Amino acid sequence: MADTVILDTPLTWKEIAAVANGAALALSDQARQRIVAARGIVEALVEREIRGYGINTGVGALCDVIISRENQQALSRNIILSHACGVGQPLEKAETRAVMAAQIANFAHGYSGISIEVIDTLLALLNADMLPVIRSRGSVGYLTHAAAIGLVLIGEGECRHGGALIPGGEALQRLGLAPLTLKAKEGLSLVNGTPCATGLGALAVARLSHLLDWADAATAMTYENLGAQADPFAEMPLALRRSPGLQQVGRNLRRWLEGSALLAKSAGSRTQDPLSLRAVPQVHGAVRDALAHVIEVVDRELSSVTDNPVVSGSAVAPEVHSQAHAVGAALGLAMDSLATAAAELAAISERRIDRLVNPLVSGLPAFLAAGSGVCSGFMIIQYTAAALAAENRRLAAPASLDGGITSALQEDILTHATPAADKALAILGNLQTVLAIEVTAAAQAYDLQAGTAAKARRTAGLYDRVREKVPFYRDDRPLNGEIAKIRTLIETTDIGPQGETA
C-alpha cells in the first residue's frame, strides 16, 4: 500500500485500514472541487433563507425552530460542544485514524457542504498524528465520537501526540493553524453520518482478514500434531460443498501440510477426526464467506453519502434534502455478523487447544508439561482461552437490536452501528490472543512428539519463527508473557495462503 492514499473516487476498506495504520491521506483536485462546490450550495441556501435542517433550524427534536443568520455560527459551535459527551477510555491510535479518514472521505463526496478549510485542518491533524481524544463509550450511532474531533477544530478538547496529551488549541498552534469558526451546517456535518462505524468497520475487516490466515496456519500446526486421516482437506470431497471460503481454506491447509511426515505417520489410525479438526474448512470457510459479505457492505458504505441533510444542485439553484442516510443499519447488521464470525473462529481454536493439552485425547504428555505432576504446563492457559471464548459469546449478542429512544421521540429507532463495530474489535482482540495460545501450544506439542518424523516445510518454518520468540516451556516463567510475544508476532506478521511470512 502506498505511503499516501489519494482520495479521489470512493475509498475502500483497504485504504481506510492503510491510513489507520499510518499512511497519509491527501485530496485529489477533483475532490477539492466537489467540496468547494457543495459549500457554495450551502452559502446559497443561507442567503436565500431556504429552510434546511441544521443549517437554519435546530437539530433533533428542535428541527422546527428557525435559527437566524446571526446565530447560525453559534449553532454550529454549540452542536460540537453539547454533543461532545462521550465517556470511557479513548479510542486507540489506529481506531482514531480510521474514523478520521472515513469522515474526510464522506465529506469528499461533495454533498455535505462543509468548507475546504475544515477538511484541510482535519487532514493536517491526521497526517501529523495529532489525534483528537475520542472517548469510546456513549454513542448510539455517531454523534459523541465525531464531536470529539470537532472540538479540536474549534480549539477545544484534547489531542494525543507521541504519548502526550495536548490541549486542542495548542495542537492547532503546533501545526501553524488557528481554531476554526464554524459556519452554517458545519457543526452538524462534523457530528453526522456513519464515518465512526465505517472507519471502525474497515479496521475490523482488515483485522479479521489478517487473523483468518493465521487461524488456518494455527490449524495446520495443531492438525499435524493430532490429525490422523490419510487425506486431510482433500480437494475432491471438499469441492462437493459450494462455498468459496471453504475452498480457500482447503487450499490453504493443503499447502501448509504438504509433505508432512508427521501426518503420514499417523494416517489411518482412526476413521475420522473430531469436528474441531475435521470441520475446519466448513467453519473457517463460513467465516471467510461472512467476511466477504461484510466487506461488500463496508465498501458500499464508503461509496455512499451518509450526511443529513445533503445538498445538491448548484449555487444558482440550491437544493437541500432531509434523509436518514446517517442511520447505519446496514453497518450495524454487518458488524454484528463479523463479531459472531470472529467469535466462532475463537471458539473452534479453543477446542483445538483443549485437544492439544488434554492427555485423554492428545497422545502427548499431559498438558504439554515438561515433567509429570511437578509441572502444570499449558493446563491453565487453556482456561484463559476458554474464558476469552466465553467472553466473545457474551460480546457477540447483536448490538443492532438494542434499540432505544432519544431526542424526545424524534429519533425513536437506533441501530447502534458504532457500538457494533466497537464490540467486534473487542472480539477480534480476544481472537488474536486465543490464536496466539494455540500457536504456542502447537509449538510445544511438536517438541513433545515421539520419534523423529518431520514437520511439513511450511509448518516447520512457522515453528522456527515461534521459537525465535519463545523457547520450550518448563514452568520456569509466567506463560502469559510468552503468549504476549506470540500475539505480537501474529499482529505484526502477514502470513499468506502459501505459508510464507513477511
Automatic annotation (TrEMBL):
SUPFAM superfamilies in alphabetical order: L-aspartase-like
Database matches in InterPro entries: Aromatic_Lyase, Fumarase/histidase_N, L-Aspartase-like
UniProt keyword annotations, A-Z: Lyase
Entry GO MF terms: ammonia-lyase activity
Pfam families linked: Lyase_aromatic (PF00221)
Name of this chain's protein: Histidine ammonia-lyase
Species: Metarhizobium album
